[in-house]
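Running low. Invent one:
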Amino acid sequence: MTSDPNQLLERIRSGDKAAAVALIELFYQRIYCFLRRLAANEADAADLTQRTFGRVWQALPSFAGRSSIGSWIHGIAYHIYVDWRRADRHNEFRPEEWWLTCAAGDTSPDEAAAKADMQTTVYSLVDELEPDLRNTIHLHYYQGLTLEETAEAMGVATSTVKYRRRLALDELQKKLTTERAILGSATRAKTI
């Protein structure tokens, strides 16, 4: 079975149900991870992922191919999430246990700990960004969408995504510099 989304789409349009299953399998984990990051828990992410693929299935006949299938599905997922947030007024609190599950790697324990600390810091700083900036970072960096795909998913111009990305990166850099200064002061105070 091919893993090319465009070939799968053509086979789906010809009535191949196995191709539909293959398309879902191709994107399911990425969409689930994206929605887990946004929704902050697995149960809501699973529900939102199901809603996303339900909507994908309904909209598939009208997919015109003006964007990549991946960015189109991410766009549907993003809008499902936004609608869910508006309707249920969910907060975005993430417990410490959630952050601990984010770190992974094949590095030494001290490198893994330093990487986990940095990831936790960056993730928490990203979460402090205003929603448009935060969601731009999530789609572009965490989901690996191009700038154009991120723009398509969010329903904005590519120039808007570039602007939001620059604002977010500038803000994150300032916050990281502040965090490092605070940590440096605390470390020096402990050694005195």
About this structure: The domain at 1-92 is CATH 1.10.1740.10 (Rna Polymerase Sigma Factor; Chain: A). The chain has a mean pLDDT of 83. The CA atoms of residues 39 and 142 lie 14 Å apart.
